[in-house]
Amino acid sequence: MDLSTALAALKDGTLTARDLAEACIAARAARPDARDNPYVAFSAGLLRAQADAADIRRAAGRPLSEFDGIPLSLKDNYGTGTVCGGTWPVFAGSPRRLPPMWNQPGGVVSRLLAQGAVVTGKTRMVEFAFGGLGANGHWGTPRNPWDRVHHRVPGGSSTGAPLSLHEGSALLALGTDTAGSVRIPAAWNGLYGYKSARGHLATDGIVPLSPRLDTVGILALTADDLAQGYRLLTGTVIDPLTDPSVIRIGRAPVALWQDCSPGVVAAVDTALDRLTGLFHPVDSVTIPELDEALALFRRGGLAGAEIYGFLGQELPAWLPSLDAYVGPRIRASADVLDYDARVAFLDRFANGVQALFHDVDILALPTVAITPPLLADLAEPSAYGRANLMALRNCCVANLGDMAAVTLPVGTDAAGCPVGLQLLAPRGADARLLAIARAAAAHLAGDY
C-alpha cells in the first residue's frame, strides 16, 4: 500500500491507524534476517501505542491532521525525544549511542509528530552519513533487494530508508542528503526521492555532517507520495501543473553523462525522449565552473573538514572507532587548510548555477552514474573510494549548487538494477519541482 491510498483509507474509515501499524509489524516480521534489517531500532510496542493514540483521537473526531496515524521511518541521525512514553536511540551509524542532547526533536520531527505521524523506527545509515554506497562496518551492509543472487550495496547514506519502504514496514521514509544520500538509495531501489534546497527545511535536531550542505529529504513509493510527504512537512499542497508544455527542460552538461555503467544512459535517454511530448526541451545547458566544483568535491569539499571538526569538538570519543569505510577519509580532512577559500568558491558556484535557470526551468541527468557495486568489490579502500565518488558525482552538484532535486525511476540498467532520472531546480522552486515530478511520472506511466 502506498501513502496516498492509506490516507484515503484512514479518511473513509476502511482502515485504522492500528491496521496500518499491524501491517508494518507483519512486514518487518516477515524479513527476520538481521543482515537485511532496515532498522537500528524498531519497537512493535511503541508503534502500536502511537497508532492507538491516533485512533482514539480520530474516533473522538479530533485527529491532529489527515496524517494522524500514518507510519513513517526516520534515519538514525534524527532526534525524536520521548513519544508515547518511549523513544529510539540515536547512533548516527556509529557503534555507540550518542548523548541525550542529540535525541531532541528539531523542526521537521516536531512538525510531523504534531501532525500525528507514527514513527516506525530509526533506519540504518552510513556512519555519520559520510558515504553514498550504504556500507557500514559496525552494523553491517544490507543487500540491495533488486539483486537476489549477489550482495550489492543499497545506497546511502540513508541506507535503511528505502528498505523500510521496500519491505512495507513504513509508508514514507525521511533521510538527509548532503551529496546524494537520499537520491542514491532512492534511485538504486527503484523509488522516488526528493532533496530540499538548502535552508528550505530545518536541519536542527539532526546530527550534522556538513552544516553548509546538509538538507532534509524524503523517499517514497510514488511521486504522489512525495508530494504528500512534502505537504506533511510544510503544509503546502502540490497542485497539478496547469500547462506542462511551458516547462523548459534542459540536458545537464556532458561531464555528468560520461563513464556511466552500461544501460544507465539508455534508460534515462528513453525517458527524456518520452518527456519531450510533455515538456519543452531546450539545448544542453552549461553549468559555470562545473569541472572546478567536481574537482573540489573529489578533494573532500566541505563535508570532510566539517565532520572532522564536529566530531573533534562534540564527540571526540567517537573518532578512534570510526569504521574503515569513513574513518580514513574523515581523518584525512584534518589537514584542510583552505576551508575559507572553498566556501568562497562554492558561494560563487551556487550563484552561477542559480543564474542559469533564467533560460531553463529544470535540468535533467542520470541520478547515479553507476550500477550498485558488489560489496565484495569494495574491500580495498581505493576501490571503495572510486565507487563512492562515482555514485555521488551526479548528485553532489545539487548540493554544491544549492538546488532542489528529485529522482524518478525510469527502468533498469544492463545488470537489471534500477536507474533514476534526476531533475534539478533552483532554490525556492521545491514545490514547483515536485509538481513537475508528478507530471513526469504520470506521463511516463502513460496516464498524463
Strand order of the largest sheet: 1-3-2-4-6-5-10-11-9-7-8
Q: Superfamily at the CATH H level of the largest domain? A: Amidase signature (AS) domain
SS-based structural class? alpha/beta
Span between termini: 22 Å
N-to-C SSE series?
A: HHEHEHEHEHEEHEHEHHHHEHEEH
Q: What's the CATH C level of the largest domain?
A: Alpha Beta
Radius of gyration from CA coordinates = 20 Å
Arithmetic mean of pLDDT: 97
The biggest beta sheet reads:
11 strands, mixed
User: Poorly predicted ranges (pLDDT <50, ≥5 residues)?
Assistant: none
CATH topology of the largest domain: Amidase signature (AS) enzymes
According to DSSP, the number of beta strands is: 11
**Domain unit count:** 2
Q: What amount of the residues lies in strands?
A: 5-15%
Proportion of helical residues: 25-40%
Summarize the structure in words.
This protein folds into 2 domains: 3-234, Amidase signature (AS) enzymes (Alpha-Beta Complex), CATH 3.90.1300; 245-294 and 344-444, Amidase signature (AS) domain (Amidase signature (AS) enzymes), CATH 3.90.1300. Helix 8 (264-275) links the parallel strand 7 (248-251) and strand 8 (280-281). Helices cover 37% and strands 13% of the residues. The protein has helices at 3-12, 17-29, 44-59, 107-114, 160-167, 183-188, 223-234, 264-275, 290-298, 303-314, 327-332, 339-356, 381-400, 430-444, and strands spanning 39-42, 71-75, 118-123, 173-177, 192-195, 215-220, 248-251, 280-281, 362-366, 404-412, 418-425. The chain is an alpha/beta fold and 448 residues long. The chain has 14 helices and 11 strands. The mean pLDDT is 97.
